[in-house]
Design a protein that fits this description.
This protein is an all-alpha fold and 319 residues long. It has one domain: Orthogonal Bundle (Farnesyl Diphosphate Synthase), CATH 1.10.600.10. Helices cover 76% and strands 1% of the residues. A two-stranded antiparallel ribbon has the order 1-2. Helix 8 packs across helix 9 and helix 9 runs parallel beside helix 16. It is globular, with a radius of gyration of 21 Å.
Length: 319
């Protein structure tokens, strides 16, 4: 395939279509819009009749929700190159179809497109927040790369990586939604912390699914994180209780990037026997409970109820 074929207009739209095939659960845009609606519900009980702060019937919220999904998708495109992942959401990853050179540029395009959209309403305060969470995400990815294959990674270090690469974007979504909903400063902070706790829970469940998920539901091979040298909370916990044979097996998987079916079954058995899976699930549940608690700053409303249900949805997900 020659360059003009790959980068022409028709090819470009095919490339974008390939990205749209692996869009995920839209949890971040949902958290964004529901946060704004929760703030609006509060504001309506304290504002003059007929005053609607969610500008243009929520059009700004939808625009910025799309922006954060663009940012998230750009990170997925780049992550698949870094991890050399062949599959995403049950579809061939973009770089496995088009090559790394084109895919890097696509990720860059999505980043720039997201910032172009963010600048359209001329809200520099929101653009600054989006830039801040994007930088934190990149810092998290760099931190994770620096710890690749490090079996001495501590729980605190791992949670710091999760906070940077995943949770801060969730926090930004919830806070910016609150800003558009005219939330008070303390409500903005509560929504940001809600989003961070939600994101922590989301990523911990994501890590668990790598060991307990169904490959057909996940749309990618299970066990990919460990084979790629990513040491997540279940493994950190297991290593604290593992004997020499188990430690040696984990070291071999990380070093060689492969694991036999028998070895995988034994590893999963040890994860359950040492209650490492349960430990990680408990952490996810703690973050989910903390997220819900932060919402009690807002009065009861259908919007708050929907936001309150989101952590439970994350805990129950299978993909």
């Amino acid at each position: 395939m020659i360059v003009s074929d790959r980068c022409g207009i028709a090819g470009f739209f095919e490339l974008i279509g390939g990205v749209l095939l692996f869009v995920g659960l839209f949890t971040r845009p949902v958290a964004f819009i529901l946060s704004g609606m929760t703030a609006v519900a509060y504001f309506h009980t304290h504002a003059p009749r007929g005053f609607f702060p969610f500008l243009n019937g929520g059009e700004l919220a939808v625009l910025y929700a799309a922006v954060v999904e663009f940012i998230h998708t750009a990170t997925l495109v780049h992550d698949d190159i870094i991890d050399d992942s062949k599959w995403r959401r049950g579809q061939p990853s973009v770089h496995s179809r088009w090559g790394s050179d084109v895919t890097v540029l696509l990720g860059d395009y999505l980043y720039i497109k997201s910032m172009g959209l963010a600048l359209t309403p001329d809200r520099l305060d929101i653009v600054r927040q989006l830039c801040d969470v994007t930088l934190r995400m990149i810092e998290g990815e760099l931190y994770q790369l620096s710890k690749k294959g490090d079996l001495a990674l501590t729980e605190d270090e791992h949670l710091d990586i999760v906070r940077r690469k995943t949770a801060y974007l969730f926090g930004g979504c919830a806070r910016i939604g609150g800003v558009l909903g005219n939330a008070k400063p303390e409500q903005e902070r509560a929504l940001q912390e809600y989003g961070i706790c939600l994101g922590m829970s989301f990523q911990l469940i994501d890590d668990l699914l790598d060991f307990s998920g169904d490959q057909s539901a996940l749309g990618k091979p299970v066990g990919g994180d460990l084979r790629e040298g990513k040491v997540t909370l279940p493994i950190i916990r297991l290593l604290q209780h593992a004997d020499a044979d188990t430690t040696g097996m984990i070291t071999g998987v990380v070093r060689d990037g492969i694991v036999t079916p028998e070895g995988w079954r034994e590893l999963c058995r040890m994860l359950h026997e040492t209650r490492s899976v349960e430990y990680a699930m408990d952490k996810a549940q703690q973050f989910a409970a903390a997220a819900k608690k932060l919402l009690y700053l807002f009065p009861p409303s259908p919007e708050r109820d929907a936001l309150m249900a989101l952590p439970d949805y994350i805990l129950a997900r299978d993909r």
